[in-house]
TrEMBL record:
Enzyme Commission numbers on file: 1.14.19.-
Keyword NADP: no
SUPFAM superfamilies assigned: FAD/NAD(P)-binding domain (SSF51905)
InterPro entries per record: FAD/NAD-bd_sf (IPR036188), Flavin-dep_Halogenase_NPB (IPR050816), Flavin_halogenase (IPR006905), Trp_halogen (IPR033856)
Enzyme class: oxidoreductase
Entry keyword annotation includes Membrane: no
Gene Ontology molecular function terms on file: oxidoreductase activity
Protein name (record): Tryptophan halogenase family protein
Pfam families: Trp_halogenase
Length: 518
């Protein structure tokens, strides 16, 4: 390696590897003779895990950043629009037990307190439906934009559901054909460290030694560089998040005109939950469960019951589902010397709330934005990166745990989640605070919080949590202010429901005609 960072070597492909390559190459002009040299080494035949096919709205900026058109992305990746998540059965398992976590935020809390707004809504109206229009758009199967809306622009905030394998192939093609990324198909069999423990090169079976100045470990759960060669430890959180298995399969639609859901559906089961994601041509369905609370046979039986209810006549069986084993853990120091882990090499937790791809996006973005120009800057850059992502992982763990702790279900799995001994100290502190004041931005102080205060509020109040009313009056709690905002929300809701196409209608238009790039 040289003292200046001129060549980055990425070990591993998949979504994390190719997203990282794309962001670095686009930002640092890898296609130019004097640009950053970006090389990605990918072993042939490594399958895409594909546990989660959901994304966060940040993906739109990421795709625009690396120069992929939205039309091409949707056409190539079997993609559909996602406007949030719906949770069924998490509170008590009754037929009416359902709530939304939409991407749209409530009104500015400086203008109107969301809790006051909800309390001013008609009796019995769910929190998400009272404070934002998006839950109703999802219930109606509406798209988040119109056919004439330009690429990546939104009427309602949105992300995507996508085919992870097709997405990786699109990224690979774009990076190598348009962005100047060098692609080496080879198996990494060793790591060459210098006398100070810095990575000098990786040894490959087919191409010999590949040297670089900065190495990015995208080798998945194996973590060949940061984990195996450099010894960065994993912080296990399986005592907080119990799930460690998933049964995943593809479910066909009844016909080509079947409605496409506008959200990820998460349905609670006795020892876990099921994700149900609608793409253009199929659904992705999987049962996430805890092996400490369920056998594989019992999990397959629970998944089959779900398929019988929600995909009758689809011709699929839980016996066809692929078993995936995982460990909920992350590295508190993903950047070690001149090597940084991105994607599953950095960490992985259950695919609730689609945190995997957004963490890869944020990691790659920060590596690119803070790329050290010289070796002398590596240590301080690594320290800043590690502090940021240790914080983010703890917030993810807190937020996912929040989905479980107020459940009234009586199965042992849910009872164990309710046990405060399995909560994080930070979550215990926040819940005690929220008994008297709702979640606010003061609880989450970083600029790029993965889950802001509004996300916590959607889950809290969707699960029936109660915050005590204030005994003193505040300007933003005034009934006339709440009434005005409720009127605006209802007017916007009517307008959107009348003017927006369905998901299926908009996707059919894009496949036939594309979106405007103006």
């Amino acid at each position: 390696m040289t003292d200046t960072v001129e060549r980055v070597v990425i070990v591993g492909g998949g979504t994390a590897g190719w997203l990282t390559a794309g962001i670095l190459a686009a930002d640092h002009c890898a296609h130019e003779p004097d640009g950053l040299k970006v090389t990605l080494i990918e072993a042939p035949g490594i399958p895409i895990l594909g546990v989660g096919e959901g994304t966060w709205p940040t993906i739109r900026d990421t795709l625009r950043r690396i120069g992929i058109s939205e039309t091409e992305f949707i056409r190539r990746c079997n993609a559909s629009f996602k406007q949030g998540s719906r949770f069924d059965g998490w509170r008590d398992g009754s037929s009416s037990d359902s709530y939304f976590h939409p991407f749209g935020a409530p009104p500015n809390p400086d203008d109107c307190d969301p809790l006051a707004l909800w309390r001013a809504a008609p009796q019995g109206e769910a929190f998400a439906r009272a404070v934002n229009v998006q839950a109703d758009l999802c219930l109606a199967g509406k798209a988040p934009k119109q056919a004439g809306t330009p690429e990546y622009a939104a009427v309602a905030n949105y992300a995507y559901h996508l085919d992870a394998g097709a997405f990786s192939e699109l990224l690979k093609e774009h990076c190598t054909d348009r962005l100047g990324v060098e692609h080496i198909e080879a198996e990494v069999v060793g790591v060459d460290l210098d006398d100070h423990g810095w990575v000098r090169a990786v040894e490959t079976k087919e191409r010999g030694s590949v040297s670089g100045d900065l190495f990015i470990d995208c080798s998945g759960m194996r973590s060949l560089l940061v984990g195996q060669a450099l010894g960065a430890a994993l912080t296990d959180v399986s005592d907080i998040l119990f799930n460690d298995r998933a049964l995943a399969l593809h479910v066909p639609y009844a016909d080509e005109n079947a409605p496409i859901q506008s959200q990820t559906n998460g349905t609670a089961l006795p020892a876990g939950w099921v994700w149900d994601i609608g793409l253009q041509t199929r659904r992705g369905v999987g049962h996430v469960f805890s092996s400490s609370h369920s056998t594989e046979d019992d999990a397959r039986a629970a998944l089959q019951q779900y398929l019988d209810r929600h995909a009758p006549g689809a011709g699929v069986s839980s016996a066809d589902a692929r078993l995936i084993k995982f460990r909920s853990a992350y590295r508190e120091t993903p950047w070690v010397k001149n090597c940084v882990a991105v994607g599953m090499a950095q960490g992985f937790v259950e695919p609730l709330e689609a945190s995997a791809i957004v963490m890869a996006e944020l990691s790659a973005g920060m590596v690119s934005d803070s790329l050290p120009a010289h070796r002398v800057l590596m240590e301080s850059t690594a320290r800043r990166f590690n502090e940021r992502f240790a914080y983010r992982w703890t917030r993810i763990v807190d937020f996912l745990k929040l989905h479980y702790i107020f459940s009234e279900r009586r199965e042992p799995y849910w009872q164990d989640h309710r046990n405060p001994e399995s909560w994080t100290p930070r979550l215990v502190e926040l819940v005690e605070r929220w008994r008297f004041t709702p979640p606010s931005r003061e609880d989450f102080v970083q600029i790029q919080e993965i889950f802001p205060a509004a996300s916590y509020a959607y889950v809290l109040y969707g699960m029936g949590f109660e915050t005590a009313p204030l005994r003193t009056r505040r300007r933003k709690d005034a009934p006339e202010i709440a009434a005005r905002f409720l009127q605006d929300i209802h007017a916007t809701k009517r307008k959107f429901l009348q003017g927006l196409p369905t998901n299926r209608e908009l996707l059919n238009h894009i496949m036939a005609h594309g979106l405007s790039r103006v």
